[in-house]
Amino acid sequence: MQTGTLITLALYFILMIGIGLFAWKRSTDTSEGYLLAGRNLPPSVAALSAGASDMSGWLLLGLPGALYAGGLVEAWIGIGLFLGAVVNWVVVAPRLRAQTESYGNALTIPEFLANRFPERAVSLRVVSAIVVVAFFTVYTAAGLVGGGKLFETAFAGILPNTGMSDYMLGIWITALVVLAYTMVGGFLAVSLTDFVQGCIMVVALVVMPLVVMFGPGGSGGDSIGAIPQEGFLSLSYGLTAIGFISAVTWGLGYFGQPHIIVRFMAVRSVKEVATARNIGLGWMGVALIGAIGVGAAGRAYAERNGIVVEDPETIFIVLSDLLFHPLVTGFLFAALLAAIMSTISSQLLVSSSSLTEDFYRLFLRKNASEREAVNVGRICVALVALAAIGIAADPESEVLGLVSNAWAGFGAAFGPLIILSLTWDRMTGAGALAGLVTGAATVAIWIALGWNSDFIGGQGLYEIVPGFILAWLAIVVVSRMTYAGGEPAHA
To answer: Rounded to the nearest 5°, which phi and psi values hold at 164?
Structure first.
């Protein structure tokens, strides 16, 4: 059985690497080509690339696992994310596409902030680059954990004996394939693979719940209502005010995710952002409903057939292995790897761009040639991946936990900063720096104190809430104190 599955996965890996080689021939001669595909992405590619790089393994592991264990009340995270994505596409996308080009043709978020606030250019580039690399290393580790769990659960005992666990072997295989096409093909390879991966993911998320409910061992969905857990199908059962706020405020994170909003910078034109928005939000709505369906239907199937699922985050893997022909199982595992790899590749490339453009070219080699910058970017991709592998080595790591920390860090540090820099002319460089530092520091302190799990003797409050609020206030207060009049000048 596993042979057919492995064949399908091998074909998937070959396809991804083939796309990387295609992109290598098309867009890696210059930094703009390597980092933004020459700002020439079609709306469909930009939309699915943003969606696929956004959702990661969380969509097929974390969210179905949360639904499986806790019931429909966990869907508030998905609802909050969808609402945040709507605002992100409407408010941030068109403005960021236009302004990053008009402010010195900025290729990275730190570079845009430096051009937007020249009086704090170096400080903003350095601090924002540090935040990008630090949080993305953790975020990338979350994706690698997903790859490790897939191989550990699905191929236990049949993988080659390499002297390491199936979990670590899965991490290395996932990382090496991603590195192959990301290092070679740059942003175009990442975006094109994201497009293919997004298509695979949404097909899998539509097919899986239907087969679980209506296939052999299912009950047409009737068994979902018979799950022996009180309030399983309720959106409000056991939901506290803090719990509700913590769930829906995941949507605040969208405005500050560099690996997502960089897609807005690469859309072919501002006019085509609206088309990309409609495609992206449609894809996201179907994908979220499918992920919720996998969790709920999977729990019903397991209860009905007496199946024990030790780790709820592996329910997608378990169902794929139980219910489908090996070749289809391989396709479903490819969908999971697509979710994981699309995000990892995007995060590695954004981290690399910050290290290259905001450190190497800023301090070490200001006159570096385009070819040299591209090659340095490739080296940085590998370095960040190695650091992430070290973090992911703990097999007890949880995908949702790692993702939530990194998501909050970016959302609080960059969210208010990006929104206000695009919409408020009186924002100053001092205010921008204050917001960036305040947001990142608040999230780090909140996590260190454990207030995200136990706040004032009760349920924890998600760290993005205080981080986002305090960062917004810091920007507004400091900007009002330091504003000297006049309009921001376009570079």
So the answer is: -125, 165
Of the CA atoms within 13 Å of residue 14, those in its CB half-sphere come to: 6
CATH value at residue 123: 1.20.1730.10
Q: Which structural domain range is residue 215 located in?
A: 2-400
3-state secondary structure (DSSP) of residue 143? helix
In a domain, 67, yes or no: yes
324-342 pLDDT tens trace: 888 888 888 887 777 777 7
Amino acid symbol at 32: E
- The answer to whether the beta carbons of residues 252 and 407 sit under 8 Å apart is no
The answer to whether residue 58 sits within a structural domain is yes
Q: Is pLDDT at 83 greater than 90 in this prediction? A: yes
Question: Phi/psi at 157 (nearest 5 deg)?
Answer: 85, -10
Q: Contact 312/66 with Cβ under 8 angstroms?
A: yes
Q: Are 178 and 186 in contact (CB under 8 A)?
A: no
Among 231, 236, 237, 243, smallest CA distance to 459 is for 243
200-218 pLDDT, tens digit per residue, is 888 888 888 888 888 766 6
Residue 349 phi, psi dihedral angles, 5° rounding = -70, -40
* Residue 7 near residue 327, CB atoms below 8 Å: yes
Largest Cα–Cα separation, the chain? 70
Length of the chain: 491
Q: Which two tokens stand for residue 70?
A: 């806790």
- How many other β-carbons are positioned within 10 Å of the β-carbon of residue 427? 26
